[in-house]
Write a structure and sequence with these properties.
Length: 285
Amino acid sequence: MIFMDEKYQNIVWILLALSLFLGATVQYSEGSNIVGIALFLLGLGVLSKIRIAGSETMRPGHPRFYAVVGLSLIFMDLGYNYLGKGRGGINTLDTMVLLLGASLIAWGSPREDLKKLGSFGTYLSATFVVLYLTFYIALNHQLYKFDHYFVMLPSAYLVKALGVPIEIVGTETLRLGGSDLVVKIGGPCSGLYSMFLLIGIVLGYSVTEGIRDKKRIIGIAAVAAAIAYLGNLVRVSVIYVVGNYYGTDAMMTVHVHLGWIIFAATSLLILFALEKTRMMIAVDT
């Protein structure tokens, strides 16, 4: 990245670290724990590359309090999972709670670079947690309808249009005709996690960089959610095609990795759009 401006280097490092952490979460739950640990360590290494400086970021009035809250969140989440109360290990929500705790600690730091990074992480992860809890509490046991009407049906029609034999056999289940493989759509396949994360990125970056144009922020957030939705349809469709032609093992490999790779690519576009917006506002003022 020697030819890239430092501002954009930091954007890429933040994005890459977040993507690696998400990839690690998927590996913990559905892939290899060893690969998950490797991705997590890589994410930590990427974070060490970030050098944020520049405009002042609002610092919490009681940094020790923020540090205590952050540490408490981390210990409570880890304790909840490893004492057997969690749902089988660290998941995406846990990752965001841990990120929120670490970000609060960094936000209370006297160092400007850590403070700014902590501010970004706090708004990003808090937005995800709030949207996640609100959405899942609101839908309660109706989430399968979203998976059925907004994910499974559109992706099935798309794959059919490409000539892949596919049969819907249940509300969240379909069969790939070429391999007689049954696939269930649900949970992370809904694409909601990516939507929440991208909206969190928009809010976190806007607040941290002092972007105050609410209409532009809302517009970018709406575009981000739409991109996340369409990107997820592409991801699910690719999984169908791979499963149909190459079998279960290949399908699971694509399932575990493709999501966070697409997320990284779409997030990069959103972050550059936000930076362009910030620069336009700076010129106007």
